[in-house]
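Entry 12.
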Amino acid sequence: MSNRLRALALYKELQRLGKDYPDPSYDFKARVRRMFEKNRNLTDGAEIEKAIKFGEYIKEETLALYSLRKYRHLKRMYPDSIPGPGNEPPMT
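Predicted 3D structure (tokens):
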């Protein structure tokens, strides 16, 4: 896949992920747009690859943040049903 198509696919995916970003004051979607606009004029293949890898890193970290948020919500809603340290059933 060409670098242009990879960058466009990454941009679309990050914009989609930005809809559910937990902190509205962070303005995730605008930051992603600025990041892509800043790197719009890159011509060196290595630089483009580095920028795409950084975008993929941001995507993975955002997905991890969403997973953590879901886990914390479940832990708050069902504190005794999620196994973990201190939540073991009593031995009889």
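Annotation: The mean pLDDT is 86. The CA atoms of residues 14 and 32 lie 7 Å apart.
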